[in-house]
Amino acid sequence: MLKILKSSVSAVILSSILMGGALAGEVKSIAILTPEEGTDYGWNQQGIDAAKAAGKAAGVEVVVAQGLGYGDVRPTLRELASDGASLLIAHASGYNTSAPEIAKELKVPVAIVDTPNGLEKGLVADYTLSGHQGAYLAGRLAAKMSRSKSVGIVVSGEPPSWNSQSAAFAQGVKAENPDVKITYAVIGPAAYSDAAGGKRVTESVIASGADIIFGQGNGSSFGMLQAVETTKAADGGKVYFIDVIGDKSPIDKGFLLSSVVWNIEPVYAAMIADLKADTFGTKHYTIGLKDDSVKLLKTAAIPDNVWTEIQTLREDVISGKIKVDPVYDAAAVRALMTSVAQ
Prior knowledge:
single chain; cell membrane; membrane; PnrA-like; signal
């Protein structure tokens, strides 16, 4: 069933998917709002897929509002609330002001990101997630496989989730080989969908000597991947790309080394459970290696012996033998780098 919003938000594709079974308790339906289409093999797609899976498991209706952009989503939030959504998942850092406003105005629970201090019992939950444990392993992998002993980090902004993964990646590189150079570059303050900028900045980082790129970008990551596919390393060989959140294997042309994959379904399932238990807005949600809600993607580009070594490191992180603490401050992240591209 396809439902079209009013003309003021005609760019939105709104679909309502009944996930089978009776509606669970007082949670009648949940809605997720994403800035880009759920076809990015990343943040938007993983969020939508997770919401559908969590809704199916709980037997509640799931409404998907995608392609909303990064502007004012208040009209969409009000529309979804008036349609009876029991939870509005505002799946973008740009929505973390408007969503709480609508929650208080209409008394509808919302979930936001990048605002860990914004909890309000019964109304506002935050799910600022961090795949830093997986990013640490990605850094170890990059240092093991870099021919030039130079790697790059390209980000579309510096939100808490990106910062924690950039820092952990750098820590992993240094733990594996402190002589490996790490070049850090930011496309822009909020360049999440800037594919052209992603390509341009990644090309410059490759030109600085990097032969492996750790990219965090949403839509801009497609530009990063394109740069990796079309730009040779300094030695004339291939440049590899390490992605985050999703799995771009279906569109890989042989340049995807790995990805720090997130499974957000357990987070949304916990939110539904918290709504039922009247504990929504009282806790933070996490993902990690232990339950595979964060995992490093194995591709054919990774030799078996290297993968075995990475799996041993994974167990060390899970056991606590290796401790990887998240770093959210942008200045602290930059301090870990060999150089910061301007």
